[in-house]
Every structure is written in structure tokens, then in C-alpha cells.
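Appendix B, record 7
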Amino acid sequence: MTVFQFKRWFNRKYGWYLMLGWLVMWGIGCASARDQSLSLTQQQSDLTRQQAEVERQRLELERQRTELERQKREELEQKILAEEQARKAAEAAVTYSQPEYEAFRNQIESASADLGKFLLRRTHPTGTYGSTDSPLISRSADGHSITTTLTVNWKGGFLEVPYETTYRFDVSKKEGFGSLSVERDSSIIKIDPEFLRSAESQLRETFNSDK
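C-alpha cells (predicted):
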């Protein structure tokens, strides 16, 4: 049998086995390629989901950080506002406002004659009251107190000699009536310090009872 005849005989007898084996191998290769393709697609899908989850977590952390900063900012603003309101309230408690100052000035001016008589009677009991000059009333630079200067014209002695006595007193918004002093006194008879302290005490009681 020649080689050619042997090949023909072999192909007739065993060729379909070879074809079947080849088809099986080809099918296995296709299945493997398909599985690899599906595996790669699954991996890409899983990676996409993971990336999306990471991004979602990043956005959530960013939102939480922004919310925390907003809350801290609001708390700080509220604290600053409360401190400012407390400061203004504390300042208002010790400071004469313009309306309060004007009301005080009007009260002193309207009662200046009676106030002058009272001061003269307490410091120069034997003197004869004449008149009271217009009071000088001023508010301190910080607005915490008001100073009043009052000059009383009066006469004393058998000869009715004219004299002038200038008084000064301070009133604080926080503490009330402060102190009474004599700025100038033309009388030769000096004021007894006890008389001055007594007048001061009575004025303090009067002013502080009106607070």
C-alpha cells in the first residue's frame, strides 16, 4: 500500500474522529473566550460600582463636613450676637441715654429754686435765700454720670451782705447719687462739714429713691 493510499484509508476510517476532536477543542476555546469576556465585563461592572460607591461616600463626607462647618459658623455667630447684646445691655444699664439725660436736666432745671433753698438751708442755716442761677448740667464723656453745678445767691448777717455759694454734685446711672461738694463760697463763715454731709445724705436718699 502506498503512502497516498494509506492516507486515504486513514482519513476514511479516522477522519471524523479528528474532525470531532477539532470541533470539541474549538468549542472549548470559544467557551473559554466567552467566559473570559464575561469575567472581564463583570470585573468592569464591579469596578464601576466600587468607583460609584467611593464617589458617593466622598460626597457624603463632603456634605457632612459642610454641614458641620455651617453649624459651627451659626453657633459662633449666635455667640457673638449674644455677647454683643449682653455688652449693649450692660452698657445701657450704666449709661444715660440722650432722652434720660434730657429728662434729668429738665427735672433739675424745674426744681433748681427748691434745690437751691434746700442746700442753703442745710449749709448756711442763718442765711436768707435770694435766687438760684440756672444750673450747669453736663454728662460725662462715657455717659455714665451727670454733673450739676448750682450757684445760690443769698444774704447773711445783720447787714444782709450778699453772698454766693456754688455747689456741685454727681449722679451715676449705676451707683445713683455720688457726692456733694462746695466749689466756691464767698461767705466769711465756712460751712460745717457735718452740715454738708447731712445735705449730701438727704440728697442721696432723694435721688436714689427715684431710680
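Remarks on this record: The helical segments are 3-94, 98-110, 112-123, 193-209. The mean pLDDT is 84.
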